[in-house]
């Protein structure tokens, strides 16, 4: 495991220590968990943005193509094969 040194304002350090005590973990473990949570949230935000862009692309394509009956297309494909 790697070690890092960080600088924190005194007030933040006091809040960190209080939160770590309340969660019954060390300062290091609390920070590791907090960073992991932050990174997971950012990854989820990135995925949500990708889904939003994909949805917009699908809606734009549907607008360009017009009405489409998926069931009818499957039946046509099935009947040809």
Note the main attributes of this structure:
81 residues; 3 helices; 78% helix; mainly alpha; rod-shaped
Notes on the structure:
There is one protein chain. The chain is 78% helix and 0% strand. The mean pLDDT is 95. It is rod-shaped and about 70 Å long. The chain is mainly α and 81 residues long. It has helices spanning 10-22, 27-65, 70-80.
Mean pLDDT: 95
Beta-strand content estimate:
under 5%
- Which structural class fits the helix and strand makeup? mainly alpha
What is Rg?
25 Å
What is the count of helical runs? Answer: 3
- How many E-type strands? 0
Helix content: over 70%
Shape: rod-shaped
Q: Which segments are poorly predicted (pLDDT under 50) over 5 or more consecutive residues?
A: none
Query: How is the quaternary structure best described?
Result: single chain
Largest sheet: none
List the topology elements.
Blueprint: H1 10-22, H2 27-65, H3 70-80
Helix pairs in contact: 1-2
Summarize the structure.
78% of the residues lie in helices and 0% in strands.
């Amino acid at each position: 495991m790697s070690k890092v040194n960080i600088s924190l304002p005194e007030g933040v350090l006091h809040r960190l220590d209080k939160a770590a005590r309340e969660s019954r973990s060390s300062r290091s473990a609390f920070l590791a968990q907090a960073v992991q949570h932050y990174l997971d949230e950012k990854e989820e935000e990135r995925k949500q943005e990708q889904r939003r862009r994909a949805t917009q692309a699908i809606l734009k394509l549907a607008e360009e193509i017009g009405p489409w009956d998926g069931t009818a297309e499957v039946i046509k494909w099935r009947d040809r094969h």
